Amino acid sequence: MSGGSTNLVGTGTPAPEVRPLRKNREFRLLWTGVGISLLGSRAGAVGYGLLLLRQTGSAAQAGLVASAALLPSLLVQLPAGVLVDRWDRRTLMIGCDVGRVLALVSVLVAVATGHIWPAHLAAVAFAEGSLALVHQLAERGAVRNVVAAEHLGAAFAQNEARGRAAGLLGGPLGTVLFTVDRWWPFLFAALSYVLSLAALLAIRTDFQERRGAAEARTIRTELAQGVEWLWRQRFLRIALATVAGSNVLFQVLILTVPFILLEEHGRSPGTVGVVLAVSGVGGMLGALSARWWMPKLSLRAVLIGSTALWTALMPCMAFAHDPLALGALFAVMNYVGGVLNVLAAVYQIRITPDALQGRAGATAGLLVSGASALGALLGGFLLDAWGSQRVSLAVGLAMAAITAAAAAAPSVRSATYGAATD
């Protein structure tokens, strides 16, 4: 369907008088606290690499710490989902913030005493990334218990825009803070987690539905239950496969930008940053506008329209060598991605039982993260072998195949925003 009521299944019965989202104190506290912690996390992540480069001069060691920060998305995602479904989400988020503060304090002590060891920073980066992942999954499942059913679209639009803004601003902020003094990015990150903790402590709303006593199950059994439920959702299964395939291709294209500008046309590194910043703004605007698109487009139109537009735009990379043209292309593609991310998140949250929110979100996150890692690995080899023009054309062909496969799936033609498709 292309519109209709948003008081849909899986979200509970709304109260007779629903507060506007802007007056929802609990959501504002949650949104602000998590947003500040995201900004602090991005700024602190930049600090690790800069600190090691200044201390050791080794790019390899800086890369090791960066890899340690990314590993949780592949190694910790599924167990984190089980944890989020087993335990109280608010308590988990509070514990994650406390843990992240303690981890950053250890870095501040190391910087203050001059005992900076790559192994220590890698361990902290891994721990911080793992706690952030649990925090993120818990918040994602909590949102539908904090806002009214009809406000889910607006809430997730704001969350997606918040995440993209943090990604856009966090890196430059971390760099500026490091130029002031090398411990500033870590202090800022630690303070951001303290503020997030304070916001959580001020929230009194339950972050999950009340549950009876659950049977004792092994982690493997609970993981299998989540994966099995997700597999039965035919539209969600196709949508995740489509998004994962698209992520592989986008990671290849992201590597293509510096290859085109630096290697083939001798532009400055700053030009690459400008192009990526412009594309980030496009994604943020897409997220903010998703609420407007939701009542106007069916799920099929959103999914197939997004991939079809990407199919048309991706091959243009082969001929767009001007930074402005590249920035415009990526901004439009990211705009579409922002819209798709929000609407897909709202659909998944609405149809997923509250007791499975963590595992469903973790399984989806693992697919997307794994696809991104594969794309980054594949992109380097393809660019060395084929060059940017052939790679861009090949990516467009691959996107066309993904679009055709999604369009042919019966579950895509019949999906609606509030109905499961098992």
How does the SSE layout of this entry go?
Blueprint: H1 25-56, H2 59-70, H3 72-75, H4 77-86, H5 89-113, H6 118-146, H7 152-180, H8 184-202, H9 219-232, H10 234-264, H11 269-293, H12 299-313, H13 323-351, H14 357-386, H15 388-408, H16 410-414
Instruction: Please state the overall shape, judged from the principal axes of the Cα atoms.
Output: globular
The helix content is over 70%
Overall number of domains:
2
Tally of contiguous helical segments: 16
* N→C terminal distance: 18 Å
CATH class of the largest domain: Mainly Alpha
The Rg value, from CA coordinates, equals 21 Å
Biggest sheet features? none
The chain-level structural class is mainly alpha
CATH domain fold name of the largest domain? Growth Hormone, Chain: A
In quaternary terms, these chains amount to: single chain
If you average the pLDDT, what whole number results?
Answer: 89
Return the string of H and E elements: HHHHHHHHHHHHHHHH
CATH architecture of the largest domain: Up-down Bundle
Please give the number of β-strands.
0
Strand content: under 5%
The CATH homologous superfamily of the largest domain is named MFS general substrate transporter like domains
The stretches of 5 or more residues where confidence is low (pLDDT under 50) are 1-16
Pfam family, one: MFS_3
Organism: Streptomyces olivoverticillatus
Membrane topology: Multi-pass membrane protein
GO molecular function, one term: transmembrane transporter activity
